[in-house]
Amino acid sequence: MKEEDIDEVREGQERRLLKAWKVPEGWRYWSEVNNSEVGMWYTLTSLGFFFFAGVLALLIRVQLAVPDNDFLTADQYNQIFTMHGTVMMFLFAIPIFEAISILLLPQMLGARDLPFPRLSAYGYWCFLLGGIFVCGSLFFGAAPKGGWFMYPPLTSSYQPGVGADIWLLGLTFIEIASIAAAVELIVGILKCRPPGMRINLMPIYAWYILVVAIMILFAFPPLIAGDILLEMERAFDWPFFDERRGGNPLLWQHLFWIFGHPEVYIIFLPSIALLATIIPTFSRVHLVGHSWVVLSAVGTGFLSFGLWVHHMFTTGLPGVSLGIFSAASQAVAIPTGVQLFCFLATLLTGHFIKSVPMLFALGGMATFVIGGLTGVMVAIAPFDFQAHDTFFVVGHLHYVLIGGSVFPILAGIYYYAPIVSGKKLSERLGRLCFWLVIIGFNVTFFPMHASGLLGMPRRVYTYPAEMGIGGLNLISTIGAFILGAGFLVLLWDILRPKSKQPYSERNPWGAGTMEWAMKIPDRMWGVRSIPLIKTRYPLWDQPNFIHDIDHGNFYLPDAQEEMRETLITSTLDAHPIQCMRVPGPTFVTHLAALFSGGFFIFATYHWWIPTIISGVLAVVFIVYWLWTGTAWIPEKDEKNVGMGVSLPIYKSGPLAAGWWAMFITMLADMTAFISLIFGYFFYWTVQENFPPQVAGPEFFWPVTGAGLLLFSWILTKLSWQWNRKNKTKRFYACLLVASLMSLAGGIAFLAGPWVHKMDPTVHVYQAIVWVLVIWTALHAVLGSLMQLYCLARRMAGRMTARYDADITNVSLYACFMAVTGVITALVISGFPAIGR
Amino acid sequence: MTTRHSLWLLALSPVIWSLHFTAAYITAAIWCAKFPGTDLLKVRHLTAIYTVIALGIVTLQIFLGYRKHRSSTTHAHHKDSLEGRERFLGLTQLLISSLSFLAITYNAYAVYVFRSCE
Description:
The complex is a heterodimer. Chain A is mostly helical.
C-alpha cells in the first residue's frame, strides 16, 4: 500500500474511534460514563470533601487551642469531630483511591475503559448524593455526633435525633457504591489487561488495587450488617445492642472493627501503590524486589483482617483473645516493612532524580514510619490500656493516615497532573506546599503524643487549665493552620488559570509504565491501539513502543462499527479472548442513583411511603438500565481486532466479565450474610441461655423455604440447559416454576417466625431470627425477579440459545440464593435443637 | 512446563493462616465464655493440633513454591514467557507462604503463653 493510502486508512480509523468515544456536549456532558470523565469527577469530588473535612479539623483545633474555650458548644464539637472523621474516612480516603484507580487503571492497562463504565458512573452519582446528604446535615445542626465509629448504646439509646440514622443509612448507601467500584476494579484488572501482560508483567499498582478491591468485598459487608442491626434497633426497637433484652453492644464493636481495621489498609495500600509506581520513575530503574512487594500487598491484605480486636483491648475480653490479636498486629509490621525496604533499595540502586512528587513520597515514607512505630507500641496491650482513648492515639492515627495516605496522594497529584489536565503543576508552588504541609503536620500532631500521655482524652470538647496541656494544644493549633496553608497552596495550584501555560511534553517524567504512553493533551479513545506487552516497563524496554501504538500497529486500532470496544484477556497470561462492547453515555444511571439515594434518605426520616416508592423506582430504572445497556446481541459473532486476530464479540459464563461481576458481588453479599450469622452465634457465646426457652421458627417453614430455594436453583440450572438446546417451551416452563418457587421459598421463611408469633422487640433471639429470614426472603424475591427478567429477555429476543449471558449469570445468583436459604434454615431451625 | 498454576494458589497459605487464626480465637472465646475460671489447657491442646495441621499445609506450599521457582533458572521473573510467569508465581507463593508460616507461629505462641482466661 502506498504511504498516502496508509495515512488515509489511519485517518479513517482515528475518525471512527473519535466518533465512538466522543464526549457529549452541553448539558449532556454529564451523561458521560467514560473512565477519564467519571474518574476526574470522582477525584475532584473526594478532594472537595477533603477540604470540607479539613475546615472542620481547623474548627476542632480552634476550640482546643486554649483551656476552657467556648468557641464551640459541646454539641457542636461532637458533631464536628464526628463529621471530620466520617468525611475523611468515607468521603475522602476510600473514594479517592477508587477515583484515582478508575481514572488511571485503564491507562495503565492499555484498556479503552473499565468493563462496566455505567456501574462506575452509578457509583459516582451515589457517592455524590450520599456525600452531600451526610455533610449537609451539619448545616442543620442534625449531624451524627457519636464519633466516627458510632458506638452503641450511646448511639442506640441516648441520641434520639436523626444524626445517627443519617450516618447509618447515608454511609450504607455510599458503601454500596464502594463495593460497586471494587467489582469494577477487580474485573478490570483480571480481565482487561492488554495482550501479553502476563500476571508477572502486571504493574505493581494493579497488584495493590486488586488486593484492596478484594479487601473491600470482605471488609465493607460486616459494617453493612452492623448498620442494618443498629438501624433496626433505632427505627423499630429491635434490641440487638440492648443488654436488658439480651442484646450486646460489643457486637457492634466487633462488626465495626472487622470493617474498620482492614479499612486502614484499604486506605493505605493504594497510596503505597502510587509510591511503588512513582519511585522507579525517579530512580530510573525497575522496582527492586517486585515479587517481595507483591508479597507485602497480599500479606498485608490478609493479616489486616486479624487485627480488629486491637481497637477493643479495653473492653474486658479475655487475655488470650488480646494476645492473639496483639500477635497478629505485630506480624503485620513485617510485610509493611518489606515494601518500604524495597522502595529504599530501588532509590539506592537507581539514579535519583529530584522532583516535587519525590519530596512528597519521601516525606510520606518518613512520616508513615513514625506512625508505624507508635502503632507497634499501641499493639502491645498493656501500653494500649494506658494510651487508649487519649490524644496519643489521635497522634498515631494521623501519622499513619497522613504519612501513609495523604502524602502519597499529594505525590500522585503532582505526578499525574499532566495526564489529567495536560499540564504540570508548578514546581515552585509544589515545594512551598510540601514544606508547609510537612512542617505544619509535624507541629500539629507530634505534640499530641505528649498531650495524650499527659492524660488528654479524645472526643472531649475542652480541658481545664490545671491539666498543664494548654501549651501543647496551642502548638498543635498553630501547626494545624500552617498545614491548612499548605493545602491552600495546593488548591491554588490546581485551580489557578493555566490557559497561558503550554501543554506538558509527552511522558514528561520519563516514566517506563504504560499510562505515560498517552498523548498530551489526551484523546478520548484512551489508547490509539491496544499494545502487545512484553515487559514490566514497556516505555523503557520495548523498542518503537509509542510509535507502534500511535500508528495503530497493535490491537483494535479501529472502531469499524463506531461502537465503544475494549479487549478482554485471560487472567494469567492475558491471551485475547473477546472484543467486548462497552456502553456509552446515559442518564439512566443518574435516575437509578437518585432513587437509590431516595430510598436511603427517606428511610432516615422514617417516611416509609416515599421510601418504598423510591425503592421501587430504583429497581425499575436499574432493570431498564440492564435491559437496554447489557448483553447486547451483536450483529456478527466475531470481528477482526488487528494483528491477524479475530475475536468473539459476545461471551457468557466464567470467561465473561459479567459472570465475574456477579460472582464477586455475591461474595460480598455472602460476607454480609455471614456477619449476621456471626451475630447469632455471638449472642450464643455471651449469653448463658441462648436460644432462650421461647417459641422459635421450628422446622417446617424454614426447611420448606430452604427446599424451595434449592429446587429453584436446580430448575434455573435446568432452564439454562434447555435454553442452550433451544427447547423454548421447556425453558419457559422451568424458569416460570423456578421463579414461583423462589417467591414461595421467601414467603415460607417469613412464615416461620410469623406463624410462631415471634415478637422481635421482646428479646434479641426473636430479632436476630427475623433479620435472618428477612435477609433470605429479600434474596428470594430478588431471585424471582431475575428469573422473570430472563424469561422476558428470551421472549423479547434479547437472549437466545447462543447469546445466554443473562440466564448464565442468574443461575449463578440462584446458587448463592439457595446456599443462603440452606444456611439460614440450618442456623435458625437446626442450632436451637443442639445449642440448648 | 506446567501452566496449571492458578492465582487461587497464592491465596491458599494466607487462607490457612486465617482459618487457623479464626479457629484459635473462636475456641478460646467460646471456652472463656462458657467455662470461665477454668484453665486453658484444652484450648492450648486444640490450638496445638490446629497449628500442626496449618503449618503442615503451609510448609508444603513453601516447598511447592520453591520447586516452581527453581524449575527454570534460565528465565527471570520478569520475562515474557510461561517459564517467567511460573517462576514469578513460584517465588510469590514461597514468600507469601513463609509470611503465613510466621504469622501462624506468632498466633500459636500467643495462645501458648496464657494459662487462664483472666
